[in-house]
Amino acid sequence: MLGRTIFIDPGRCIGCQACVSACRECDSHRGKSMIHLDYPDEGRTVASLPTVCMHCEDPVAPCAEVCPAEAILITADGVVQEADPTRCIGCANCVNACPFGVPKIDLEAKLQMKCNLCYDRTSYGLAPMCATVCPTGALFYGTVEELQAERPGVDVSTMFAFGDTVVSTGVAMVVPGERRTPVPGGTLNLIEVNGRPTPGNGARA
Amino acid sequence: MTGTAPPPQGRPIGDRPAEDDAAQVVASATRATAVRASLVAAAASVLLVVAIVLGSRLLRDFDSALVPYAVATVFLTFGVVYRYVVWVSAPAARRMFVQGWKAALSWENLKRSPAALPRMAATYLGFQKFLGARSHARWAAHQLIFWGCLLAAAITFPLTWGWFTFTSADAAGPGYEMRLWGLRLFGFDSGSFLGWALYHGLDLAAVMVIGGAGYFLWRRMRDRAATTGQRFGYDFLPLLALLTISVTGLLLTFSEMFLHGGGYEFLAILHMASVVLTLVYLPFGKFFHIVQRPAAVGMQLFKYTARRRGSDAEELQACRRCGQPIDTVAAVDNLRATMRDLHLGFDGWAEYCPRCKRVLRGNAYLSNVKRGFK
């Protein structure tokens, strides 16, 4: 059962980068933005996709499971915290294991960093920085009921399919009301992307 | 998905053992690890006791006033070894542990880059360069604590084990001799600077630790990044423990120099209690990073030596979509094996860079979920 969390609706994102700037103001990683804003089909559409940590619940936090230093801790409320700087050895296992492409790493400082759902704010009942400033509601913080009261007819999904594996998360994505299958995590073994061949499939070196 | 029957989650569909079986397998593996860890830890503790007895020349040099400290080090050994074995038994740590040691013990690596291991040990463990990249102030404070604790441990552990002894060179004085396991190391004049430094080594260590721990305590109360999610037992207790040990230690010197030993017995007990409790707490809290940190050297050596085996094109894993290097091929293979150990069925995604993983997902959402993001 989802409590208060972030709901991401890429359909509403206008790529304004307000969330990226606001994330930088988060006290737990001041000056460094942890949110990702990507333009999946740049040059063809203006579609943009904000990505925060999805706080995976099942399997619980793959990033934490593959951490050899037990550095990524999960609080009782299900928030997957950024790496404990005392323990993190900067091996990048979490960066490469996360199917959502969330954690960042500072190789010089041997430290992983990622979105911790603005724990300094959300643990006191405040909305995360990104959701606070998002002008279009692409990032919404609240309960499903609050979301659906504002946006009749939408549903949310916490299921993401990566190949045959379904990952369930604490952060949800907005989906059309009639959708009943997990949100796809993408298709691998690509031969070409946007009309251009991928490496190993004829791409120029 | 709200209001609908959820599809199977987590493990690959069709590859998911029954919940009860899985729980039983986990429980029996945990029990086996606990038994193994207890046995290894008990063996290490017995080994230390034997080393204490032999090193103190069958307890002839053993200072019985220091018995609680010596006993605490035996408990410390048990705790550290137990926790270490449990830690390196987990899939991710086990694979990294094996790869790190393989890289360190490889004759080929030693021939190719003989300076790599000592250089990494010095920069990561001794001078902790990575901390400087996080914050200069934290680096300086941590160096003070690190060298202070190291100095204190180097003095006190052999003393409590009866390994170090100080004996008069002759009846008239002021010559003194320092002995290890009963063997004379060197002689010195008790009134000389060396003598003063030897007697006050722990005072110097205490001043260093107070400086460093004081800064971290201040930071824990003022820095908003540090205060986020901090916990008393994990973040404050270690600092308070270090400060208590250092302050009570300095007070012993103060009592001796200015109070003619006034309150010395009480202070000695207070100091001993703080040291013993800290040593026993060490394996289970923040201090365990002292034991874990060398894994950073193993990990770095594993990646460094793998990269030096051949050209970048051969040894670096390029993202299968954009071609940007992700990590060494060996590190990605090691991670994928770890993921398979953990039944994380999406290890294929590890061959894509984080941005491409997000873009692939964005594209799938664009074409399958909300066509054109409408």
From TrEMBL, chain A:
Molecular-function GO term, any one: 4 iron, 4 sulfur cluster binding
The keyword Signal is annotated on this UniProt entry: no
SUPFAM superfamilies per the UniProt record, alphabetical: 4Fe-4S ferredoxins
Keyword Metal-binding in record: yes
Membrane spanning residue stretches: none
Assigned keywords, A-Z: 4Fe-4S, Iron, Iron-sulfur, Metal-binding
Segments forming domain 4Fe-4S ferredoxin-type: 4-34, 79-108
Protein name: 4Fe-4S ferredoxin-type domain-containing protein
Organism of derivation: Kitasatospora phosalacinea
Lineage of the organism: Bacteria, Bacillati, Actinomycetota, Actinomycetes, Kitasatosporales
